[in-house]
Specification:
3 copies of one chain form a homotrimer. Chain A has about 180 residues and is α/β, with parallel strands linked by helices. Helix content of chain A is about 40%, strand content about 25%. In chain A, strands 3-2-4-5-1-6-7 form a 7-stranded mixed β-sheet, sandwiched between helices. At the A-B interface, helix 6 of A face helix 6 and strand 7 of B.
Chain lengths: ~180, ~180, ~180
């Protein structure tokens, strides 16, 4: 990791993964940066964004960027810790924008590898249920699984969060 | 826990979580009480209830209560170990009855915290797959995840059961 | 286990379970046999089969058998390590062929118990999401969960793979 630290926090919906990720970033002692990839497409999403925002205090710098996470990460100085929330929305946004996922994934993982800042990336684990019918669900599940594998391979620390509690797959949570 | 013991056993459908929970209760050496929250709504459900019932021997006292688990727990004396089977049906029943989930969840967690008996609660982990389309699925998944987080926070012991084998997230199984 | 070794590798779609299973078989130092249960029913499936095949080098012997995994395992000599890929397709194929799953499961587990070869079985964990509507999904999830429990009970080593990383539920991966 060349002196910087990449962590991946996996979990399901409403698993408590975001709360754990925020704690890990704050515990790092670096300047916390919140890189939000979600788009407020509807009321439900807007409410979730507002809820997460209300939880973050004035220490946080927030950057909203649905597509260009790679670029944002490249521009961050050392001494910062970026919470990338989350890879699942990032992936969804790339698909929605009609971009090449393999190309964007390569750009993102390059940025993660050459980053000067610490990074805590949050992502959904979506592979452990029965796949609902529909080609998009199946394709999204495959792409999400491949992205998680790729980032987990690069990360020094990987946790799976269940009911708010982390199981370490590799390393340990920063802090 | 003020001398009593709260355990949470999470797992998927057909994961073996109920069998492990029954063993944990029997191993505690206390009077086993089976608090069943399932309603026999159809043949499939009735069959499942019958299968679980056939597995329990005469040591067990059975209480069937789809909605008022909080009240049942409050009324249990010390020296008993209650198997609360399960939080997922409890949640579903509250929604079906049109009750306020946040209010009922507060009542239940209060009862869990002030209980004089030991408790082993069983709940489904439902967050690790792709969410099927439909607002109810999404809402139920969120409520289930929040309930699991809340109870896991209170419990001294939390296990995730996969293929009949427990992974401990916290503490250890009673017995 | 009578001197032979049975391992079960569980994981979701695109979790990296197959790659880990291949490594485990090769690390065993025995003659690797790939027992493929998938049927090339459509282009998507054919592509997946081709991708897995391209990853295996000339050391591997490949046997394609959608239904009679029990028979294939019984016929394998000691000194071989069989990668059974996977129990999920095997189960699906039994259902599609209208066979009795309980009977076929008994045949398969008998074969696993009396095998002279080492075996690494791959299977999907499908129980940790919200069950999609539809009777087949629910039934398949239950049968898959029961099969995984049964094989995990017999296996000396059981891993759950998430994002390419194994969590050991029992024993350790061969190699």
């Amino acid at each position: 990791m060349q002196g910087t630290d990449l962590s991946l926090i996996l979990g399901g919906a409403a698993s408590g993964k975001s709360g754990l990720a925020e704690k890990a970033v704050l515990a790092s002692g670096r300047q916390p940066v919140y890189l939000a990839t979600a788009r407020a497409g509807d009321d439900e999403m807007q409410e979730k964004i507002d809820r997460h925002r209300a939880r973050r205090d004035s220490r946080w710098m927030t950057i909203e960027e649905p597509l260009e996470a790679a670029q944002v990460i490249e521009s961050q100085a050392g001494g910062r810790a970026v919470l990338l929330e989350c890879l699942t929305f990032w992936l969804f946004n790339q698909l929605e924008a009609g971009r090449s996922v393999s190309q964007e994934q390569a750009r993102l993982t390059n940025a993660l590898q050459s980053a000067r800042c610490d990074i805590v990336a949050v992502s959904n684990e979506t592979g452990l249920g029965i796949v609902p019918p529909g080609e998009f669900s199946r394709r999204f599940g495959t792409l999400q699984g491949e992205l998680n594998q790729r980032v987990a391979g690069l990360a020094g620390n990987v946790a799976l969060v269940v009911a708010g509690l982390p199981m370490m797959l590799k390393g340990r949570l920063p802090g």
